[in-house]
Specification:
The chain is α+β, with helices and mostly antiparallel strands. It has helices at 3-14, 18-37, 83-92; strands at residues 42-44, 48-55, 58-62, 67-71, 74-81. The chain contains 3 helices and 5 strands, in the order H-H-E-E-E-E-E-H. It has a 3-stranded antiparallel sheet with strand order 1-2-5. Strands 3-4 form a two-stranded antiparallel ribbon.
Length: 96
């Protein structure tokens, strides 16, 4: 499902104009991004959490030059689904 599909589905179910739904979805994503960039996690009860994970420093390899490089510790955004969300997916989606 793409963002356009999501907007169309929400518009259909809520009766709101697609342009209004598009604005709300854009603002939601912007706020999540802004919160994570400022170091705050976003918790949505029953859905999940957008969190910041810290990756430890590690040693990598540059294959083309056959050298060792040091990858510094860094933060990455991550999503952790709520237990209710995980259980819903486990029970309703067939294993492929």
């Amino acid at each position: 499902m793409t963002k356009a599909d999501l907007v169309a589905k929400i518009s259909e179910k809520s009766g709101m104009e697609k342009g209004d739904v598009q604005d709300v979805v854009e603002k939601f994503m912007e706020e999540v991004k802004t919160s994570l960039e400022s170091g705050d996690n976003v918790y949505l009860r029953g859905f999940g959490s957008f969190i910041i994970k810290t990756r430890a420093e590690k040693t990598g390899r540059n294959i083309s030059k056959n050298t060792t490089i040091k990858i510094p510790a860094h933060n990455i955004p991550a999503f952790k689904p709520a237990k209710v969300f995980v259980e819903g997916v486990k029970t309703n989606v067939d294993v492929k």
